[in-house]
Every structure is written in C-alpha cells, then in structure tokens.
Amino acid sequence: MIDTILITYGTRPFAQRVSRLLSARYEVVYASSEPFPDLLLKQNYHRIPTGVNPTFAHEILKLCLDKGCQMILPLGEMELQPINEARILLEEYGIVVLLPHDLEECFMLENPSGEIHVLKSGIDILTGDQLCGDHFSGAGILADSGDEPILCLV
Questions:
Q1: For a designed S-S bond to 137, which of 51, 84, 98, 131 qualifies (C-beta 3.0 to 4.6 A apart)?
Q2: Under a CB-based contact definition with an 8 Å cutoff, are residues 64 and 27 in contact?
Q3: pTM for this one?
C-alpha cells in the first residue's frame, strides 16, 4: 500500500514542485486556505481554514483521517506554529508532522531554487539517506556549509 502525504498551500508553484518529487512514491493530497477554482476539488485539492483559525488543527486532522494521510507537510509560515502545537494530537492518530521540533532555531527560506529534500527525522523520505540530525523534518535544502538544513516554505 502506498503512503499518502498532505501538502498545504498545494496550489502554489513550490508545493507543486515538491509534489512532483514525491508523487513517484507517495499519493499526494493538496490543501489550501487560499481561494482556488472549484474544478480543483475534483483533483485531490481540499479547502482548509487559515492557520489563525481556531478550528485549523481539527480540520487538518479530519482531512488527514478522511483521506488516509500518514504524513503532513505544511508549507505556509502561518501554519507552522498551529500544526506544531497540534503535533501530539496528530501523532496520536498516526499522522507524522514533517516539521522541525524547534521552529525558533530553524532558518527558513521562501520558494528556493535548487535541490529540495523532504526529510523525516533527518532522513530523505525518497532516498533513505541520512542528510542531517534527527531533529529536522520538512521540506528543506542543505546549507552551503552542509551543517544544518534550511526549512523551505511557499
């Protein structure tokens, strides 16, 4: 059985770029709080509230459960804190949150060029290679120094 991953801000070009990487090994479900054409609702796109909405975490959980998502990859900065706070709840349902545990210590970059890796506890989920410490999960690029990954957002 193929694993399913939920990507937020799914209508943005960066999210599409990441999903093209993942689509060979994962089923990708898209979510967005931004307006998008109803036509996309027939193509695995789903509307969610914004990260500041008090129901955000519950709507994300419901969507993940309804669509059988084992992982969630948040790509919008305003979603990071609410999803991080809901991490324990999501993980109780077997949903892995692909975000660094310590967001304050994390460098972030919007819409980067170059090679993107999607990491789960420092391991590239496509290649299985350990690219950094197990404290980092999410879409990232490796810093030029090679020491720490940089979290990539839309």
A1: 98
A2: no
A3: 0.94
Which whole number is the average pLDDT over 28-52? 93
Report the pLDDT averaged over residues 87-104: 95
8 Å CB contact between 5 and 29: yes
* Separation CA 18–CA 55 (nearest Å): 26
Q: What is the sign of the dihedral through the CA atoms of 24, 108, 57 and 95?
A: positive
pLDDT for res 146: 66
Candidates 122, 153, 7, 19; CA nearest to 69 is 7
> Does residue 75 contact residue 50 with C-beta atoms inside 8 Å?
no
- DSSP-derived letter for residue 40 is G
Q: 3-class SS at 41?
A: helix
* Residues across the chain: 154
Place of tokens 């609410």: 82
Average pLDDT value for residue range 25-38 = 95
The dihedral sign for the CA sequence 95, 56, 80, 83: negative
Per DSSP, helices labelled H in 86-131 are 87-92
Structure tokens at 7: 């990507």
